[in-house]
Write a structure and sequence with these properties.
Layout (H helix, E strand, L loop, with lengths): L6 H6 L3 H13 L11 E5 L3 E5 L13 E5 H9 L5 H8 L15 H6 L4 E5 L2 H7 L4 H8 L6 E2 L6 H14 L6 E4 L3 E6 L2 H21 L18 H11 L4 E5 L2 H7 L4 H4 L10 H4 L9 H16 L12 E4 L3 E6 L2 H24 L7 H11 L2 H9 L2
This protein binds zinc ion.
């Protein structure tokens, strides 16, 4: 992955925040680092944290999209044993320097606990392809060593920030330039804009080169033609089970055809997505046979076991169906979301394929993924509400 830093361009940005916005856009311009609102960046002075707000995409982020917060007040929230995760998240808003500033990212506290002035956070494919295996800790120790210790999976927010702080305090050395977030992504940091951005790319390139050396980088392609059959019947059956019409997008690229024809598909494709947030688009599991009703009933039961009564907020019908003849069939509440889901699943396939080429691919727990579906989903409900007469 190419480092896009350019001294001549950097000189045009005369304030730290302008530089912060520029290198954030450099990160956001690469879909292998950041997808659909994922990832966030920050810059801090002695007393203020400037972090990307929610609702803006890193690819187009500008100075007004960053929110200034009282750094000491943020850090104090995490030190208060009386505050649970939800309580901490509610109190962040009160740390804003200006009430009209954008809502700070859910990952604000992660940025606050890192003692370095510049911090980058991305969900880089190559990092996940290294880390998302049964032997996550051993593999990451081999690839990244003290450059980037591993933080076990925690929900974004206070729990993740506390875990990052703890791992940083116990494992970071003077050589440490980042943290690997298991089943989530990567954090990198530095003394200035160039170093911090460069450190993120250094970790991603370490991952990429390690995968290449293991023969785990090249993705298989299958150029045998797909069946001429239509997936329309499947679309109608899933729509009927969901209770609202779903749009269909079919991926029959050579990469997709190689994926659906893997001999071990039933094992690799059913571990869960590379990061729990993907499940709001792709669901935790794909449909591997024609049994839409069976899938939906099993998925519903599983959500109810994990989420109790809250499970009613999450649709239980499949969004991805894998068929060795048809290809990858993607379903979305409309064409727009079907296309987004297709792109997210393509990145997922690359990560799962590469991880399975050097270890046993693994995802976060059923409980963590179910929680993410409830906590970060909801966009489909919004679309359906707007559609209602
Ligand atoms: Zn994240």
């Amino acid at each position: 992955m190419q480092n896009l830093w350019d001294d001549a361009i950097a000189r045009e940005y005369t304030t730290p925040l302008a530089l912060r916005a520029w290198t954030s856009r450099l990160l956001g311009s690469d879909r292998n680092l950041v997808l659909y609102g994922g990832g966030n960046t920050s810059y801090k002075t002695a007393d203020t944290l400037y972090v990307k707000g929610t609702g803006s995409d890193l690819a187009g982020v500008l100075e007004p999209h960053f929110t200034a917060l009282d750094l000491a007040a943020l850090r104090a929230l995490l030190e208060d044993p009386a505050l649970d995760d939800a309580g901490v998240m509610r109190r962040i808003e009160a740390c804003k320097r200006e009430t009209s500033a954008p809502k700070p990212s859910i990952e604000t506290l992660l940025h606050a606990v890192i003692p370095h002035p510049w911090v980058e956070h991305a969900h880089a494919d190559a990092i996940l392809a290294v880390a998302n295996v049964e032997s996550c800790f051993e593999t990451c120790a081999e690839v990244f060593g003290e450059l980037a210790p591993v933080v076990p999976y925690r929900h974004s927010g206070a729990a993740l920030a506390r875990a990052c702080k703890s791992v940083y305090e116990t494992s970071a050395t003077h050589n440490t330039i980042g943290l690997i977030l298991a089943f989530h992504g990567v954090v990198a940091f530095g003394r200035d804009a160039r170093e911090s951005y460069g450190n993120l790319l250094r970790l991603v390139n370490l991952a990429e080169n390690w995968l290449k050396n293991r023969g785990a980088w090249q993705l298989p392609e299958d150029h045998t033609a797909a069946k001429a059959a239509s997936a329309e019947v499947l679309r109608e059956r899933i729509s009927a089970a969901a209770g609202f019409p779903l749009s269909l997008y079919i991926d029959r690229s050579p990469l997709a055809m190689a994926w659906v024809r893997r001999a071990d598909l039933a094992e690799v494709a059913t571990q869960g997505p590379p990061t729990p947030q993907h499940a709001i688009y792709t669901k935790r599991l794909p449909l591997l046979d024609d049994d839409v009703e069976g899938y939906t009933s099993r998925y519903r039961s599983s959500l109810e076991r994990e989420l109790g009564a809250e499970a009613r907020h999450v649709d239980a019908t499949p969004r991805i169906a894998l068929d060795p003849g048809l290809g990858v069939c993607i379903f979305g509440v409309n064409q727009h979301y079907a296309a987004i889901t297709a792109e997210i699943y393509q990145h997922g396939v690359a990560i799962m394929t590469r991880a399975a080429a050097h270890g046993q691919y693994r995802a976060a727990s059923l409980a963590d993924i179910s929680f993410a579906e409830l906590e970060y989903g909801g966009f489909e409900r919004d679309v359906l509400l707007k559609r209602a007469p």
